[in-house]
Amino acid sequence: MEGRWNARADRARRPPDSDRVQNPLNRDIGPLNFLTLNAHQQALSLCNSSLRFPCYDLIHIEPLRPCPALRRWGSSLTMQFALPPRRSPHTLPGPHSSRLPLYRRKQLKTIGLFAFAILSLLYLLSHIYSSSSISIVAPAGTASVVIVTLLDRQSFSETYINKIITNREDYAKRHGYTNFFASVSDYEGAIGDAPRSWALVPAVRHAMATHPHSAYFFHLSPHALIMNPTKSLKSHLLDWNRLESLMLKDTPIVPPDSIIKTFTHLKENDVDLITTQDNEDVSPSSFILKNGEFARFFLDLWFDPLYRSYNFVKAEIHGLDHIMQWHPTVLARTALVPQRILNAYSKDSSGASPDGSYKDGDFVIRFPGCDDGKSRDCDEMDPYYTLWSKKAKGA
């Protein structure tokens, strides 16, 4: 039947392979006439010149089934410039495909910076709120405590100085401590025109440099005697439980009504400086300083030329009052203890706190102002020295 398509005859009429055109997907599309081929090439050229990506994803040349009416192979040229179907395996390249990775990179960068900021903050807080003291590995035979005594050989008699040295050496020998006796004249160049009492600060710093492995430095005024030689600093004050029970919290720094008070949350393991106060000021005549970074910072701050050149009425005492009130970094490391623990005043001395006068059995007695040359003399220490000698021999 002529109306029916004869496949065998059609195949015989097909042109050779050299005349056939392959589409970009290597699919046989049959013969194309020149008009169709030219249109296809023009479309490809236009597409490639106007877009940034190849056009074979947009232009599909699909073979048609043989047309029975024409009895020959045909082809159709389909141009699709719309977006592909949702489930198409060919995803359009362009900004959308790289937007998600870029967003993720920004997100990861933000998370990384945030994590770094948190770790840095934790690191800083750990150094601020942990003890600033250096963990010191002391060589064998190193004394844990150094007793620092500043002597003014121009003002004190040799008899007086010998009594002070004997008192300190006896106590140090009993408990395995060591003494550091300094002379005011050694620091005249450092203190300059400031009052000579400022020499106690470089004297303590000198002791720290001489004994770098000792844990504590106990500064004691040359106008003071250790009256109870059986008490070690460890049992008397440095034991953590003992110190915790003695710390004065929420107490005015400068009596009686300073608005700046000691911290209520201060713990014994945060303490690097232990001192007392009398009825008027913080008293640096007797204090214990823990070796470490804070100790050096504190002494450098206290000895700053600004404080030494300022005309404080009580020189280094008022300088310390100022530091305690306006430098919370120092106050956060300082423990105030009752006056009689480290700095009991003799009955002839004025300015003691309500419970700051010496009583039998107290650790230290001090004679402030005995060298002012007016109505008192430091020989008032002699009866107490005799009493101490008897205790030392009987202990």
From TrEMBL:
GO biological process: protein N-linked glycosylation
TM region positions: 108-126
Cited InterPro entries: Glyco_trans_34, Nucleotide-diphossugar_trans
Pfam families (alphabetical): Glyco_transf_34
An MF annotation (GO) of this entry: alpha-1,6-mannosyltransferase activity
Alphabetized UniProt keyword annotations: Glycosyltransferase, Membrane, Transferase, Transmembrane, Transmembrane helix
Region Disordered: start-end pairs: 1-23
Cited PANTHER family: ALPHA-1,6-MANNOSYLTRANSFERASE MNN11-RELATED
Protein name per Swiss-Prot or TrEMBL: Uncharacterized protein
Annotated organism of origin: Penicillium canariense
